[in-house]
Every structure is written in structure tokens, then in C-alpha cells.
Design goal:
Layout: E1 4-6, H1 17-20, H2 58-66, H3 71-96, H4 111-121, E2 127-129, H5 135-140, H6 145-152, H7 186-199, E3 206-211, H8 218-229, E4 234-240, E5 243-244, E6 247-248, H9 249-252, E7 270-274, H10 278-293, E8 299-304, H11 322-332, H12 334-344, H13 350-373
Parallel strand pairs: 2-3, 3-4, 4-8, 7-8
Antiparallel strand pairs: 1-7, 5-6
Helix pairs in contact: 2-12, 3-4, 3-12, 3-13, 4-10, 6-13, 7-8
Bound molecules: thiamine diphosphate and magnesium ion.
């Protein structure tokens, strides 16, 4: 799978995209090798579309990328992704048992995106904002599994004292700005957070995650315009998981194979990345972050990824075949791929990986216990953390 890039000024050729998209969801666009002209707003940025990198065997390619990294980092990436996977599986189970109510959108399958990006940030001044599919982002920014799980069960120990639930958690300390249930709403918020950093002359940037469905929202383009105009330090990460609820991306988005081109009218450069390869995400992230930190303005990253579970817990996912999901799991799973590579290349042996599995399991078990034992909020809490004082 490839990383392809555009300089911001080329005209999209969309004729074939919608027809071919559903057949090969993770295939790189064929036209990624042509040269492009840098757009007016993207002056000084790379004007050349990088040739799509292709290698037959994904583990080999991971191994190639891993040469640039030390062992501890590779192990950390594995552990961070596994924590999200196990946390989400547990949340799914607890939902099934009636311990979690309301909405709950699982991130299983997409772990490499947020873990790869967070590993590239490595700066406490950077902020993150995302949609309702947010537990993975919270864990990746360093929020405690206990506090997230207790929020899911609506308990006092939760990040929003049990009053927010799955879609509404924040951490000022970790610079995590939510958790937003309105599709696309986090995009102007992330743009505003990054604007404030620039305006106040504070360091940092804001990584703003959005879905392939959200990218068709009008407010996204108002944000793009302002971000490009004022060179705001924001990275828009489109998590293209191939569906917006029950609608395939190709049926909802024009030129759906090239969502990373969506900023070209504003001169915002874009990059398409294999979001099932944590090192591809990390390396692309490092490159983009460097540009944004240098004051060159916003950037769009389109992560080609896949959600294994339904849109939310109440989705029977009848709009796609079991075989499609199974194929993605067996051929592209980001955790299995990294695990295989770690073993093959001798970065870790079975015993070391077992140790990690055990550690992660303990964190999740403790979180689940805490989330069930923490008391429910006192009824008086109904009158706190609201905009107006109760009469
Ligand atoms: C403004 C608005 N319109 C519609 C909805 C209902 N809705 C919730 S999630 C969703 C799909 C969004 O898909 P995508 O952006 O691809 O994110 P994903 O769920 O795949 O992570 C829709 C239409 C909503 N929450 N907000
Ligand atoms: Mg989607």
C-alpha cells in the first residue's frame, strides 16, 4: 500500500474513481505518479507527486521501515495498538452485558492511525480533537483506561464524572479536546484550537481527525479556507474507513479515491497513507508535522483504513459481506502485521510478546473493574458543569 502526495494545485481527475472504489478499497490511486504544479497557496511546498511505493508483501515493507526505528519504539507501538484493541473488545462485551448504555462506537481495525500519528507528535503542546469514535484517541494521548471505561459505564470515576459517556470526554492535561457527536463539528473546533495557538504565539499544532463521511460537510471547507488563509498549524487526518454508517464512501463522496485532494482549492497539500501500517503512518506523520511546525500552514492526511465492527453497537452491518471484513482482518490487520514482523525480524520473541499481552490485559481488567465499582454520580451533579446556574 502506498503513500501518495499532491502539492495542492493539480486538477483532480475524478471520472473513474467512483466506479472503481468499492472493488479495491485499499489500493493506491494509479495516477499518483504524475507530476503536479504547486498551487498558489502552497508556495514552497513539494511540487512533485511522489511515486507510489509498492511492495508485494506488507510484512517485508514494515520490516524495511522498521530499520529506521529502535526496538523500544517498535514494541511501544505494538503495545499501544494492542491496548486500544483489548480496551475496545472489553467495552463491546460490557455493552452487550448492559453495563454500558447510550452510544458506543468502536475503533477496532483503525488503531494504527492514531498510534502512528501520536508517536510522530512527541510534543506535549500538541492538541488532538476527534469525532465520537474516540476511545482510541483518548488512550493514545495518554488518558487513563480506568477513567475512560468508567465514563462509558456512567460512573463518578469517569473523565466527565459519568455525565458525558462515550462521545464526551476531554482532558485539558493531555490536550484532548473531545469526543464530538455532530459529524464534522470537530473540524472548526480543531481549526480554532490551532488558530489560538498561533494567535497567542504558543507552540504546538492541532491534529484534527474526521471521517470519510464528515469530509462532505460544509463546515469542513470553511475551516480549510481559514486554515490556509492564515497558515494555521492544523493537520486534518481523514480516517477513511470506507463507510459512513451504512453507506460506502464511494456512494457518498465524489472522487472518493482521492479524499486527500479535498484541500486543493485552498492550496492545502494532501497525502494518502496506508492507515493499516503503523510505521507508514508514523513516517508520513513526521514529514507532515515538520512542514506544519515550520509555519507552512495546514495539511491533509488521508488514512486508508477499515472499521471491523458496525458503525455503533446497534449496527448489524448488513451493508457489507462477512467475507469483506474477514479479508481485511486476515490480510491487513495492523496489529497482526506488526506482531509478525517483530517476530520475523527478531525484535521480539513469543515470550516477550506474551508479556506485553499480559500487561495490556491487566490494564483493561483493572479498568473494567474500576468502571463497575466506581459509584454512580450523585443526583446533585445534575446541576453542575452546566452553562447556567439552576434557579
Ligand atoms: C451533522 C450530523 N449528521 C448526521 C449525523 C448522523 N451520523 C452519525 S455518524 C455518521 C457517519 C459519519 O461517518 P464518517 O465521517 O465516515 O465517520 P465514521 O463513523 O466512519 O468514523 C452519521 C451520518 C450526525 N451525527 N451529525
Ligand atoms: Mg467512515
Amino acid at each position: 500500500m502506498a503513500t501518495s502526495q499532491q502539492g495542492g494545485g493539480s486538477a483532480a481527475r475524478s471520472k473513474t474513481a467512483a466506479k472503481s472504489a468499492p472493488k479495491a478499497p485499499l489500493k493506491a490511486p494509479q495516477k499518483a505518479q504524475r507530476k503536479t504544479r504547486a498551487g498558489g497557496g502552497a508556495k514552497g511546498r513539494s511540487a512533485v507527486t511522489r511515486a507510489a511505493e509498492r511492495k508485494e508483501h506488507p510484512v517485508e515493507r514494515l520490516a524495511e521501515r522498521a530499520k529506521a526505528e529502535d526496538r523500544a519504539l517498535l514494541i511501544k507501538l505494538y503495545e499501544d495498538m494492542l491496548l486500544i484493541r483489548r480496551f475496545e473488545e472489553k467495552a463491546g462485551q460490557m455493552y452487550g452485558m448492559g453495563l454500558i448504555g447510550g452510544f458506543c462506537h468502536l475503533y477496532i481495525g483503525q488503531e494504527a492511525v492514531v498510534v502512528g500519528m501520536q508517536s510522530a507528535l512527541a510534543d506535549a503542546s500538541d492538541a488532538v480533537v476527534t469525532s465520537y469514535r474516540d476511545h482510541g484517541h483518548m488512550l493514545a494521548t495518554g488518558m487513563e483506561a480506568k477513567g475512560v471505561m468508567a465514563e462509558l459505564t456512567g460512573r463518578r470515576g469517569g473523565y466527565s464524572k459519568g455525565k458525558g459517556g462515550s462521545m464526551h470526554m476531554f482532558s485539558r492535561e493531555r490536550k484532548f479536546f473531545g469526543g464530538h457527536g455532530i459529524v464534522g463539528a470537530q473540524v472548526p473546533i480543531g481549526t480554532g484550537v490551532a488558530f489560538a495557538m498561533k494567535y497567542l504565539e504558543e507552540p504546538g499544532l492541532c491534529v484534527t481527525y474526521l471521517g470519510d463521511g464528515a469530509v462532505n460537510q460544509g463546515q469542513v471547507y470553511e475551516s480549510f479556507n481559514m486554515a490556509a488563509l492564515w497558515k494555521i498549524p492544523v493537520i486534518y487526518v481523514i480516517e477513511n474507513n470506507k463507510y459512513g454508517m451504512g453507506t460506502a464512501t464511494a456512494r457518498a463522496a465524489a472522487n472518493s479515491q482521492e479524499l486527500y485532494h479535498r484541500g486543493q482549492a485552498y492550496g492545502i497539500p494532501g497525502l494518502q497513507v496506508d492507515g493499516m501500517d503503523v510505521l507508514a503512518v508514523r513516517h508520513a506523520g513526521q514529514e507532515v508535522i515538520e512542514q506544519v511546525r515550520a509555519g507552512k500552514g495546514p495539511y491533509i492526511m488521508e488514512m486508508q483504513t477499515y472499521r471491523y465492527r458496525g458503525h455503533s453497537m446497534s449496527d448489524p452491518a448488513k451493508y457489507r459481506s462477512k467475507e469483506e471484513v474477514q479479508r481485511m482482518r486476515s490480510e491487513h490487520d495492523p496489529i497482526d502485521r506488526l506482531r509478525q514482523m517483530l517476530l520475523q525480524e527478531g525484535h521480539a520473541d513469543e515470550a516477550a510478546l506474551k508479556e506485553i499481552d499480559k500487561r495490556v490485559k491487566e490494564i483493561v481488567t483493572d479498568a473494567a473493574e474500576f468502571a463497575q465499582n466506581s459509584p454512580e454520580p450523585d443526583p446533585s451533579e445534575l446541576w453542575t458543569d452546566v452553562y447556567t446556574a439552576a434557579e
